[in-house]
Design brief:
It is elongated, with a radius of gyration of 45 Å. The chain starts with 7 loop residues before the first helix and ends with a strand. It has two domains: 44-98; 108-263, Reverse transcriptase/Diguanylate cyclase domain (Alpha-Beta Plaits, 2-Layer Sandwich). It is α+β, with helices and mostly antiparallel strands. It has nine helices and seven strands. A four-stranded antiparallel beta sheet has the order 2-3-1-6, sandwiched between helices. A three-stranded antiparallel beta sheet has the order 4-5-7. Helix content is 59%, strand content 15%.
């Protein structure tokens, strides 16, 4: 009986039968898979095909990812804009809380903060801090003879002059009504503060323009120096306020009518 030489297919079938026979010895024989040896021939190709197909991105999944990315980008842009608006609103609220609405100058609260920082620095550097209390002479006549709008305009001009004639680290504050306070840190001696006081008083005495007409008005200014005249802001303000009224009374006594508001035609 002639035997055909073993072919590649017969070898694979024989190998499969041998493996099935070994499984039978382990109690796995008779499960019906012995005759399915031919499937082993293509098992590697099938696995490779399924793996390749699973690894390839599917068009609907890619499109969904793109849509999700665009949605997240729009959401991020919206959140960024909302944060910007909230930051601007917070800055505006903070400024309103610390500045005078009419003149834009710091208010009492910010003056107190700057005073505490200035005195703490002065204690370390062994120098002084000056407070100038300023009151506009004859300001009441503006409300009575010209009106509130003219008074507001004059206050704004006074604030502008104060801000322009002080140093960058000084603080000009609207204390209330027609009263202003100037904080001068880094003062080495009283004469330096007096020179600043005279400079400010001279600048405020220059004519103003209200409603297209020149207005002459002066200002009285009192000085207090830390730590000689007081240790805290309240005490120094009382001393400066008293000095201001003393100067106002002296000016009125020496030159009657000098402190009155004058509207020039």
């Amino acid at each position: 009986m002639s035997t055909n030489p073993p072919t590649e297919g017969n070898a694979e079938v024989t190998l499969a039968a041998h493996r099935n026979a070994r499984r039978g010895k382990n109690g796995n024989a008779g499960n019906g898979h012995a005759t399915n040896g031919a499937c082993l021939t293509h098992s590697a190709d099938a696995v490779h095909y399924e793996t390749s197909e699973a690894s390839a991105p599917r068009a609907p999944t890619l499109a969904a990812a793109i849509r999700k990315s665009e949605t997240l980008l729009k959401l991020n842009m919206a959140l960024t804009e909302e944060i910007r608006l909230l930051t601007e609103a917070l800055a505006k609220t903070t400024r309103c809380a610390l500045h005078d609405e009419l003149t834009g100058l710091p208010n009492r609260r910010l003056l107190q903060d700057h005073f505490e920082m200035a005195t703490a620095r002065a204690a370390r550097k062994h120098n002084h801090v000056a407070l100038l209390f300023i009151d506009l002479d004859g300001f009441k006549n503006i409300n009575d003879s010209i009106g509130h709008l003219a008074a507001d305009s004059l206050l704004q001009q006074v604030a502008g002059r104060l801000a322009s004639c002080i140093r960058s680290y000084d603080t000009a504050c609207r204390y209330g009504g027609d009263e202003f306070v100037v904080l001068l840190p880094h003062i080495d001696r009283r004469e330096q503060a007096i020179a600043a006081q005279n400079k400010i008083a001279g600048r405020l005495a220059m004519p103003y323009m209200v409603g297209g007409r020149p207005v002459a008005m002066t200002a009285s200014c009192g000085l207090a120096l830390y730590p000689f005249d007081g240790k805290d802001c309240t005490e120094l303000l009382k001393v400066a306020d008293y000095a201001m009224y003393h100067r106002k009374a002296s000016a009125a006594a020496s030159s009657p009518g000098a402190c009155e508001f004058v509207l020039r035609e």
